[in-house]
Amino acid sequence: MTKPLTIFERRHRLLAVLRDRPGIRVAELATLLEVTEGTVRNDLNALSREGRLRRVRGGGIPNDEQPGRSEPFMARLRVRDVAKMQIARWAAELVEDGDTVALDASTTVYCMAQFLQERHSLTIVTNGIEVGRKLARNPSHSVMLLGGLLNADGNPVTDLVSEGFLNDLHIKSAFVSCYGFSPEGGLTERDVREAQLKRKMIASAGSVIALIDAKKFGKASLAPFARAGEIAHVFTDSSLQRSWIEQLRGRCPMLTVCDEDSVTDYALSVPEAKHYRIGFANLDEAEPFAVDVRRGLERAAQAAGNVDLVLADNQLSSDVALAVAEKFASDRLDLVIEYQIDEQVGSRIMDRYRQAGIPVIAVDIPMIGATYFGVDNYRAGHMAGVELGEWIRSQWGGQIDRLIVLVEPRAGTLPAARIQGQLDGLASIVGEMPAARQLLLDCGNTAEQSEKQVLSALRQLPPGHHAAVISFNDDAAIGALNAARRVRREADVVIVGQGADRRVREALRDPGSRIIGSTAYGPECYGEKLIALAQRMLRGDPVPPAVYVEHTFVRVAQRLAENG
Is 501 in contact with 525 (CB distance < 8 Å)? Predict the structure, then answer.
């Protein structure tokens, strides 16, 4: 039995986790540290009183006095640190696995580097020693440090690498900050040599992303290095005065204003078009499927050019979803896209929007009075059930000892149809499964809870007995797979998923995967269709009461074929 951590050891480990995984939830910290959420909050408060971290909503930011960092750098890092973290967290969303990016040596970009720790196979070109050191901890990354003269912070400010070196690289995006910014003067720096280096980095990049806290708007310095028209996307914090938003219209395509609880994307490129403010209350920012939906929405809103997108996180919580609805209603948005899990709270959310006269699109979980968009649940489930039955017939002679059904009771009757579809599809191939051999478990809509539930079930299943698992979604499927691995029972388990998100697609690369497939909903394509539907509703065009996405079943064999 593992010896429990002392309070000192636990808090030291908590700080280490916060450094490596900024933005991690209290619930995840509790799981990692094997303590209650209340204990984690007490530890966070104690570390805050000791000055070792700054408390922010849902977690904390370590006051990182680590050796090797210069005091000037540390002093700048502490200035408006909460705003910098908010900006950095959302800017990091633009970086995907395998990207080549240029990062400057600013403290805001350093904060962003913390959110890139879990990306894979990045190529980073930077003049920031601290940025490079942070990202080099991930062995899958390639970090190229631009050499040169060091300033007082210990960061290179002049480039000793040839311009041809930068020109030969296919840099997707350059992420930069500045001393000051204005729509007329663009991005400026105090040091001419640093401005020259940033100009070279920008010239070699496909797009320029500027991370600028609100206090820098209206400031100017000696050396300009980018015009406003060269910037593809500006990220700032919520203390920005509204007048700056109007001044930026027509000068750069996109502005994102980051707050503690939400962010707003302003499309600035079509000043003459009627602009709409559309809210998106996302299911949960920790779930890959939901993140893909949100990213697709952001791309579609930017492409539309006349949609300002207000984003919030429902955190898989009914209480949070109600609070977000209250905020959106108070903000008098033109339309809301609602993605929340609890059917029971849907009527309360809809009542608030009806009072405010705001039309609503409900994603995947229906709400009475809202236009439904999402999964044809029964058909999606039936596809997976048939595929599971075919596999069982082929590999296990059509026989299983236990059918584990991972359900989500909060979602209501319509999403439950995807479970019924799986049961019917399976029965059409291998026959009805007796109720005594079925085990219904609450997946909680998370991989963690699904893992705990399936782990307990497998420990009660005799060795060599076969279990088939049907899932409410891919989180449940991943949890079942993790449980089978923990007890080394993978050979006794076969699993199908719903959603075909990034993690499941990765699992399907393995020819021996016990997740044999998943019904794909294409969450990355939701955004384009949702924005088009929203625009039709706002124009007063007739729309159907329900709009369904198309489904395909993604198999292991398909994934292997796609990857050669």
Answer: no
| Cβ 255 vs Cβ 265: under 8 Å | yes
On the question of pLDDT at 148 being above 90, the answer is: no
Q: How far is CA 401 from CA 438, 478, 480, 482, in A?
A: 9, 21, 16, 20
Q: What CATH class does 377-520 carry?
A: alpha beta
Q: Each residue of 259-274: b (16+ CB within 10 Å) or e?
A: eebbbbbbbbbeeeee
Measure Cα distances from 213 to 80, 87, 94, 219, 550 in Å.
8, 8, 18, 11, 41
- How far apart CA 405 and CA 402 sit, in angstroms, is 10
The domain at 7-62 falls in which architecture? Orthogonal Bundle (1.10)
Question: pLDDT by residue (tens digit) across 206-236?
Answer: 999 999 999 999 998 889 999 999 999 999 9
- What is the architecture, at CATH level 2, of domain 279-374? 3-Layer(aba) Sandwich (3.40)
Which residues of the chain does CATH 3.40.50.1360 include?
Answer: 71-260
> 3-state class of 6 per DSSP?
coil
Q: How confident is the model at residue 75 (pLDDT cuts 50, 70, 90)?
A: low
Q: Mind spelling out the 3-state secondary structure of 214-277?
A: HHHECCCCCEEEECHHHCCEEEEECCCCHHHHHHHCCCCCEEEEECCCEEEEEECCCCCCCCEE
* Pick from 431, 439, 550, 553: nearest CA to 493: 439
CA gap 175, 205 in Å, rounded: 10
